[in-house]
Specification:
heterodimer, A: mainly alpha, two-stranded antiparallel ribbon, 2 strands, globular, B: mainly alpha, 6 helices
Amino acid sequence: MRFVETVWLVTRKDLLIEARSKEILYTTLFFAVSCVLVFAFGFVREGRPLGDAAAGILWIAIAFSGTLALGRAFERERQSETLRALMMSPIDRPALYVGKLCGVLILLAAVELIVVPLVGLMFQAPLFAHPVLMIGLLLTGTVGFAAVGTLFAAMLVRARSRDVLLPVLLYPITIPVIIAGVRGTAALLQAEVDEPMARAWLSMLVFFDVVFVTLALWTFEPVMTE
Amino acid sequence: MNRLYPLLLLVTAAMFAYAPFMILAAPYESTMGLIQKIFYFHAPVAMTMFVSAFVCGIASAIFLFGGRPGADRVAMAAAELTSILGLIVLVTGPMWARKAWGVWWQWDARLTSTLVLWLIFQAYLLLRRFGGPGSDRLAAGVALFGMANVPFVYWSVNVWRTVHPTTTVVPSLQPGMRGPFWYCFLAFVLLYVSVLGVRTRLEKRRAELEALYLAVEE
C-alpha cells in the first residue's frame, strides 16, 4: 500500500507543477506538431503520402517529443536540486522511479491525444479503424520508451553534456520499441489490414515493456546512489 | 596471470598463423564457393562479440551491485572490444552479402539488431568519454541494457524470416568445415582474453597513477 501511495505522491507533485506552469506540455506539443509538419514535406508527393509514411511519422513525433519532455522534466528537478531532496527522502527508490514514470506517461498521453488524430487527419490514415489494437500499440510503445527514458534522464541529471547524451543513449536502446510500434501501426494502416501481424507486434511490445521496466526498476537504485 | 600471459600470447599468435591453412584445407561450399570462406572469420567474431557483450554486462552488474572498481575496468575494456568486434562483424558481413545476396545491406532482423547492439556499445563509450564524473555507474546501467539485447540478436533469425542464415547452420556444419570453424572461434576467444587482460591492466595502472597524483597534490 505504501508503494502505491508514494507513487501517487510523486506523480501528483509532477502533475501539479506542470498544471501550474504548463511549460512542458505546451512546448512538447508544439514540437510534436512541427515534427509532423517537417516530415510531411519529406514524405508527401503530389498531395499523397507515401505508403507507411503515417506510421513512421507518428512514432518519430512521439519519440522526438518524448525525448524533449523527458529532458525538461528532469532539468526542472535539477535546477533547485529537488531530485537530491527526493533521493534523500525515506521512500522506496523503485516507487520514486514509478512515480516519475507515471508523470512522464500522462504527459506523453496528453501529447498523443493531439498528435494521433492530427496524423490521421493530415495523412488520410484510418488510425481509429481498430481502436483497441491501436490504443494497445500506443500504450505499450509509450510505456517501453518512457521506461528507458525515465531511467536515463534521471541518471543523466548529474552528468556533463546531458542534453546530447540523452538521445544518444535513448535511441539505440529503444529502437526495438519504435520499430515494433511503426510496424504494428503500419500493419493496421495497410489497404488490407493485417490484424494478426499487428497483434504479433503488440505482444512483442508487451515483451519489451516487461524487460525494460524490470531492468529499470532493478538498476534505478544502484545507478542513482552516489 | 603475469607468467602465463606470454604463453597465452604465443598460443594465440600461433593459432592465427595456422588458421589460413585450416581454412584453405576446408572443403568448398557447393553454391557459394570461395566467398563462403569469410564465414570462418565473420561468425567466430560475431560469437566473440556476444561473449564480450555478456562479459561487459556481467562485469557492470558486479560493479553496480557489488561496488567493485575492478569490475568496472573489465566492463570498460569489454565494451571497447565489443565495439571493435562489432565493427569487424558489420564490415565482413556486407562483404559476404554483396556476393551472396547481391546487396551490401538488407534491413532484416539480424542485421538491424546487430547494428543496434553495436550502437548501444557506442553510446556506452560516448557516455564514458563525455559524461564527466560519475558516468561509470551510468554506463554500467547502459551495459545491462546492451547485454539484454544479445539474446534478441541471436534469436532474431529464428523468429523472423530473414535472408541471414539461421542459428542451425553452425550445429549442422559438415565435418570438414566444423574443425576449422571451432578452431577459428577458439583463436578469437584467446585473442579476446589476451587483449581484455592487457586493456584491463592498463586501466588499472591509470587508476593507480591518478590516485598517486591526487595523493601528491594533497
